[in-house]
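Sample A.
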Amino acid sequence: MKITTHETEIAKYYRQTQNHYLKWWNLKKSLSLHYGIWDDNVKSFAESLENTNKVLLETAQIKSSDKVLDAGCGVGGAAHYIHKLTGATVTGISLSPEQVTLANSVIYKKGLAKQLDFHVMNYCETSFENESFDVIWACESICHATNKSNVIKECIRLLKPSGKLIMCDYFLTPQGENDTTGILRKWERAWSLSQLPSLPSFTNQLNNHFQKVKAWDYTSQIVKSSKRMYYASILGSIPSELYNLSHPKVSQYAKNHYKSGIYQYQALKKRLWGYNVILASKR
């Protein structure tokens, strides 16, 4: 499998910023790197992170007999949630060796190595056999893919007949498609994101290969998470800059990572992007 420059950058981003997620997102406990979805029943940030998994799980209606691929698994939080709630077996893949190492260490401690497994792999070009999975789960991961059609084609190859793709991600709004502020590009560079697509352009690509493509707008329900990240970035800006001054060789992404929290919230306030859940069934 050939690793592209962009894929190398994605792995580098997560390696250089994992300590930040450990602190800001309570990573060892939450095992989550995504936005939390808030509703009337959610009382804390930790609950909002779990609620994102709940929304995807209930939308996809995953069963105990399903084999699930978590494409862009992070440190394995969703895989644990899926298995705990349904009994399904889950395989997670990530470009980040550090994430996979942490994810595997947790399953061995909990005795779940037969139900969950994690590998360093590119979701655009996996080593799995055709029709290996009933469900592909992609939580805020396809945003990193340079060529979205390659991801979609690989999902089609890997899914069994009538298999499902369940995902949530960031998409450009009409305002975002005509952004003149440059905020979106700064955010994309800070998180090693590929250029975000609009929701219509992405769902049109899905419709070429899937049937029953449905999308739901959860933008208003991730505002609290976005704002939390913004305030954490503001509070961390002075310590971060002082650290950068005293450590001139600090890594590229770690140096400016705090700014990403500012950019994403500024762009959200300007309605340049939205947050959507998508479910698509294989023909």
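Sample B, a different protein:
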Amino acid sequence: MTGPEAFQQHRKLLFAVAYRILGSAADAEDAVQDAWLKWSAADRSQVADPKAYLARIVSNLALERLRSARHQRETYVGPWLPEPILATGDGADAVTGAESVSMAMLVVLETLSPLERAVFVLKDVFGFSHAEIAEAVDRTEAAVRQAAHRAREHVRARRPRFPADRGKQREVTERFLAAATGGDVNTLMDLLSPDVTLWTDGGGKVRQALRPVAGAETVAAWFAAIGTVTYQGVAPADMVAELTGINGGPGLVFRGPDRVIATVTFDFDADGRITSLHNVANPDKLGAVARALGVPGPVA
């Protein structure tokens, strides 16, 4: 197998690893491109396991990017949310359809240290050995085991518990969409947990709530207004809302005549009620969704 063939064979895996470490599709693609440059320049005659070698390269590149991005995220305007990925499009089958890529999980991973996040992704999501990870992140096996244990305990304590089944999630999302576009506050209240929280990410580029919006009544009123107000210069009559797969679960995409405006994803409890919503409207984070839908990129 040639160098390019070996790289292409593992490209989707590399993107999946980088995306989970970074929470950004654009940064993950950049990391994969940088990995290709390093792979092209490497003495591949000494590489016994291309998959492990490439995973090591992309993990290091993603770690570097994550560390440099930490300050930007600390000074971000409003809540910082991961960049959404549709269940269609380049590399989607490698990153969607799994709990490990849900918005809820990516938000939890954001609270880990960069090392813990990389170790958790490589060990618990992709099943690399402690020895392989130690080489990838330039740590001892003992340090990797400790980081994996800390990360696992942290994630276990914070990840959503006992979510509803996928069929129920889709049914609730469909009802939510119909109620939101129809201004049906009562149905929205029925679908939301009393202590539901809405997180909105405009990144200072578009108007969004700078703090989490809490409570079923407030969140229901927020979404019931969709069909009555102009948003980002798009009148209600010109806005299209559609249900699609986002980050491994049902979600909503809002589009204007010429661009993607926002995405919304949901977390559910065991009864199917919505416990939290993640609304990404920062134009810089909607490029992957726009490409997957075949529409022009959002205007920043």
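Observation for Sample B: Confidence is low (pLDDT under 50) at residues 88-97.
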